[in-house]
Specification:
Elements (H helix, E strand, L loop, with lengths): L9 H13 L4 H7 L3 H4 L1 E4 L2 E4 L7 H13 L2 H9 L26 E2 L2 E2 L1 H20 L12 E5 L6 H9 L8 E5 L4 H8 L7 E6 L6 H15 L7 H4 E5 L2 H7 L6 E3 L16 H7 L1 H20 L6 H15 L4 E6 L7 H13 L17 E3 L11 H6 L6 E6 L7 H20 L3 H10 L4 H11 L7 E6 L4 H22 L10 H16 L7 H11 L2
Parallel strand pairs: 5-6, 5-7, 7-8, 8-9, 10-11, 10-12, 12-13
Antiparallel strand pairs: 1-2, 2-13, 3-4
Helix pairs in contact: 1-4, 4-14, 6-12, 7-12, 7-15, 8-9, 12-13, 13-20, 14-20, 15-20, 18-19
Bound molecules: 6-O-phosphono-beta-D-fructofuranose.
């Protein structure tokens, strides 16, 4: 991969000049001038329609952004990514979550060895295990079939499978799948409270099997289990997903009950691996596999489609445009589906842990903005919460609107209402409301002209707020797989352009180290040297 400071490229200089010219341009004006605007700035691919015409761009912007991608070596970088080069250089690892959804006939080499057969072996093990638990042929220690699954993990070992389990709830079977992540004891005890140990299966997901939260929750759960069961029964009720076999065995789970993970899968991109076991248990392996197939389709699209019609590339370039030229600090993701309520928090880890970096690939501090802040909530709930700020606040917040043509229960009345809001919001954000329109509206309501003049400034909407609409046929395992993979590749493209390493996460280490030191101090009631604030807080806590 090239290590180019994007601000030194010709395209960047031109983008800067171009930005000065178009920063005030109204999108509504562009729509009235460009009859082909929708066709020029939308991509219809399989069951996805991605409309980015409601963005503050022209054809020149698009071309300059594509030039930037070219100067930053995006094409070569994509080859390195899929080809298994060690692009995670600070950890000296390839980044191959894409291999997890590759086809059986594909070949992906790591250290000269094809990893696909091993991936398929693990998938076969997941399938056999899921089938046996779902059908009830594998039973708990007292001879009863399993009714509940508890996934214990955090970060990538929780957010991905939890988000997908929620998103595919419509397709789920009789098993109730719960997720415990926080080291907050109330989380684990509250989750275990209604469960029956005889019918509960635990999946401990941790790539490293050293994560404090996961180990504490696993130990507490085992203790709870052993209140009624015996030590030998642990093998029937506890399985692990990890790349650290030794640590799992030390915990007391036998080799047969370990689903392996590999160094070349980053935690936040691991839901496609055996970390997806809880998903496979919730909806069956077949549906889990459809999720992988969807992601694989997006991989092929990303790998082969010219950049001008390449969904992840276009979305990433737009994000760079707003982040680095408009200086927009955050992006909102608004799914118009309650099933996707966990998508924004899943994307927070995927995007912010990946691109929240300030050192470039040469080891120098960057002189430009990198990773954006991601947030969001489903529509229409979010309309009644934070949309006021998007419409009339002082910040520019580009937003992705994700909607579906068909609802799963096919309640047309509800779905039409939901989607009417989806369409209305992006239109309102585009057009705003002019002074004239406000005047007319208030006059019709019978207000006096004096009152109208006073109210006008508050009731005017500036508009010209950028949105990208993703309209997908239906929420299925396959379309969800495509959607997640789309954001994964968007992250990659942004990392390439910002010249940062997207696949490490050293920034989470310091807090972990300090927490373990402070825990010893709390346990021994001996507070050592800290800044005054931390010291006083600790003393206050210990006085309880
Ligand atoms: O938060 C840091 C992190 O390393 C994430 O990247 C990862 O997803 C999470 O912790 C959990 O790690 P593990 O799967 O090793 O328990």
């Amino acid at each position: 991969m090239l290590n180019i400071d994007p601000t030194t490229t010709l395209a960047w200089t031109k983008l800067q000049e171009h930005f000065e010219k178009i920063k005030e341009v109204e999108m509504s004006q562009l729509f009235s001038e460009e009859t082909e605007r929708f066709n020029d700035f939308s991509i219809h691919w399989e069951d996805f329609l991605v409309d980015f015409s409601k963005n503050r761009i022209t054809k020149e912007t698009q071309q300059l952004l594509l030039d930037l991608a070219e100067e930053c070596g995006l094409e070569e970088a994509i080859k390195s990514y899929f080809g298994g080069e060690s692009i995670n250089r600070t950890e000296n690892r390839p980044v191959l979550h894409t291999a997890l959804r590759a086809k059986n006939s594909d070949s992906v080499l790591v250290d000269g060895e094809n990893i696909i057969p091993e991936i398929f072996e693990v998938k076969a093990k997941m399938q056999a295990f899921s089938d046996a638990i779902i059908s009830g042929s594998t039973k708990g220690y007292s001879g009863l079939a399993f009714t509940d699954v508890v996934n214990i993990g955090i970060g990538g070992s929780d957010l991905g499978p939890a988000m997908v389990t929620e998103a595919l709830k419509f397709y789920k079977n009789h098993l109730n799948v719960h997720y415990i992540s926080n080291v907050d004891g109330d989380h684990v005890h509250e989750t275990l409270k209604p469960l029956n140990p005889e019918t509960t299966l635990f999946v401990i997901a941790s790539k490293t099997f050293t994560t404090q939260e996961t180990l504490s929750n696993a130990i507490t759960s085992r203790k709870w289990f052993l209140e009624t069961a015996s030590q030998e029964d642990v093998q029937k009720h506890f399985v692990a997903v990890s790349s650290n076999v030794q640590k799992v065995e030390d915990f007391g789970i036998s080799k047969d009950n370990i689903f392996p993970m590999w160094e070349w899968v980053g935690g936040r991109f691991s839901l496609w691996s055996a970390v997806g076991l809880s998903v496979s248990l919730a909806v069956g392996f077949q549906k889990f596999n459809e999720l992988l197939e969807g992601a694989n389709k997006m991989d092929l699209h990303f790998k082969t489609e010219p950049f001008i019609k390449n969904i992840p590339v276009q979305l990433a370039l737009l994000s760079v445009w707003y982040n680095n030229f408009f200086k927009a600090e955050s992006e909102a993701v608004i799914p118009y589906s309650q099933y996707l309520q966990k998508l924004p928090s899943y994307l927070q880890q995927a995007i912010m842990e990946s691109n929240g970096k300030s050192i470039d690939r040469n080891g120098n501090p960057v002189s430009y903005e990198t990773g954006n802040i991601i947030w969001g909530e489903p529509g229409t709930n979010s309309q009644h919460a934070f949309f006021q700020l998007i419409h009339q606040g002082t910040k520019l917040i580009p937003a992705d609107f994700i909607g579906f043509k068909k609802s799963l229960f096919e309640d047309k009345d509800h779905h039409d209402k939901l989607m009417a809001n989806y369409f209305a919001q992006t239109e309102a954000l585009l057009k705003g409301k002019s002074e004239d329109a406000v005047k007319k509206e208030l006059t019709t309501q019978g207000l006096k002209s004096e009152e109208i003049e006073k109210l006008i400034p508050f009731k005017v909407f500036e508009g010209n707020k950028p949105t990208t609409s993703l309209l997908i046929d239906e929420l299925t395992p396959e379309s969800l797989g495509k959607l997640i993979a789309m954001y994964e590749h968007k992250i990659f493209v942004q990392g390439v352009i910002w010249n940062i390493f997207s696949y490490d996460q050293w920034g989470v280490e310091l807090g972990k180290q300090l927490a373990s030191k402070i825990l010893t101090e709390i346990e021994t009631s001996k507070v050592s040297s800290h800044d005054d604030s931390t010291k006083e807080l600790l003393n206050f806590y210990l006085k309880q």
